[in-house]
Design goal:
Layout lengths: L1 H25 L5 E3 L6 E3 L3 H37 L8 H11 L10 H16 L19 H10 L14 H14 L5 H6 L3 H27 L6
Antiparallel strand pairs: 1-2
Length: 232
């Protein structure tokens, strides 16, 4: 888990560097000077360029959110898989998750009784043979839709305690980050339109609350995995 936290800190440091540049360019007292000519010339920053830079913050923050949550759950699953224990050694929550993963790829419209019978027979055989209990992190529903509500749902399904620091304001900013990131990624809004909605101070507050929420989430995941609270 230390590696996951270290990866988070490295990504966060990258975000901070970007914000530092953005804060500098947003300062009216700052001028950009082009060197190399006979005379130094001031370059005026296009206002639309600054809007694009502001909207890019949502892409950086969403990447921080999704990568942190995905890596932490992947670590949890890999830790479980490495133990090479059978299903009876794990809590009811993880047994249910394991069963659900076996039915994950079944299409309820096109599948028939034979399809379900095949899956059930496979499950029963694994249990009777005491095969190793394995979780597949690739089946986690976290691609492109992670916000505070989704994180709380994931933690609840895994029976992981989650107490978020009050300075995260309940994680509401994660919903903003997700919605703006998706709107930009799908072309529903231009970068200029998105950047126009926020001041740099707004974006700084969004970043702070997002990072506080993620640090709390990682902390409780660390406690859960190191204490092996998934096992009985």
């Amino acid at each position: 888990m230390e590696t996951i936290i270290e990866n988070f800190n490295q990504r966060y440091a990258e975000v901070e560097k970007y914000y530092k540049v953005l804060l500098t360019l947003d300062d009216e007292r700052v001028s950009i000077i082009r060197n190399g000519d006979v005379r130094k010339r001031k370059i005026k920053l296009d206002s639309d360029a600054l809007k694009v830079m502001k909207s890019t913050c949502f892409l950086l923050l969403y990447n921080l959110i999704e990568s942190s949550i995905r890596e932490s759950f992947t670590y949890l699953y890999e830790k479980i898989n490495s133990e090479e224990n059978s299903i009876e050694n794990y809590t009811d929550e993880f047994k249910k998750l394991w069963l659900n993963q076996h039915f994950k790829n079944i299409d309820p419209v096109s599948s028939n009784q034979a399809t379900y019978r095949t899956v059930i027979n496979s499950i029963v055989e694994k249990i009777l043979n005491s095969e190793d209990f394995n979780m597949d992190s690739e089946l986690l529903p976290i691609s492109g839709n992670i916000d505070a509500q989704k994180i709380r749902e994931l933690y609840k399904k895994h029976n992981i305690k989650l107490n978020i620091h009050h300075r995260a304001f309940g994680g509401g900013e994660l919903r903003t980050v997700k919605d703006k990131r998706n709107a930009l990624a799908h072309g529903n809004i231009t970068f200029s339109e998105c950047g126009r909605e926020y001041t740099v101070d707004d974006l700084v507050n969004i970043k702070k609350r997002t990072v506080i929420y993620l640090r709390s989430s990682l902390r409780y995941m660390k406690i859960f995995t190191e204490s092996r609270k998934y096992a009985v």
